[in-house]
Amino acid sequence: VTYIHSLDYDLVIASRASGKQSPSRVVFIDSMGPLHPEYFLEETPPCLISPQTYSEIVCKGLDQIEKRLETEVVIAAHPRATVGVMEPWYQGRTVLYGQTSELIASATAVILAHGSTSIGMAVVHQRPIVLLGSSQFDPIVQYYAEGFAQALDMQIIDLDAPELPPFTLDVNEETYAQFVHKYVKRQGTPEEPFWSVVASEIISDTKPPDGKKAD
Q: What's the 3-state SS for the chain?
């Protein structure tokens, strides 16, 4: 068995190598909600919440977060979202496409309302994370949020409450390190792209007919 980091860590490697920096902003990681393409596949159960209701719940929460933090929240669009499609669902907020990794790397806080693997990038970069939840969200969304909250020892902010409950932007470095080791990248594994590690392993285990290792 060869341990290799999760594929999202490739984006971390690329981001560090590029040296590019985005402005420091509070970032909401878009999942497309009920508009996600998988809900339109025949074998996938239909989403139990309408796009309109999902938008209203999330935007109400973002409104309150913006007021509390006195800053604008920008939207990191899902990789499968078509440019220009998500703007109406976020009530005029800035929606940025194809920049999730860079936005997380420089974020002052990262907000999620669903089970996105991009949370691993926020943990690697040690960015404060705010998890949002609602009883009206799809059960599988609630399940993933609870799993992340348990793994990172943090609360889920209840969007069903009349007023947004208190939350902090603290980072538990010990819990973050455990999460990275368990779910993103084990300590001591190569700091190289995923498939480069795979290729190196294949080459190192390949022997020609004479029994000698391949170059």
A: CCCCCCCHHHHHHHHHHHCCCCCCCEEEECCCHHHCHHHHCCCCCCCCCCHHHHHHHHHHHHHHHHHHHCCCEEEECCCCCCCCCCHHHHCCCCEECCCHHHHHHHCCEEEECCCCCCHHHHHHCCCCEEEEECCCCCHHHHHHHHHHHHHHCCCEEECCCCCCCCCCCCCCHHHHHHHHHHHHCCCCCCCCCHHHHHHHHHHHCCCCCCCCCCC
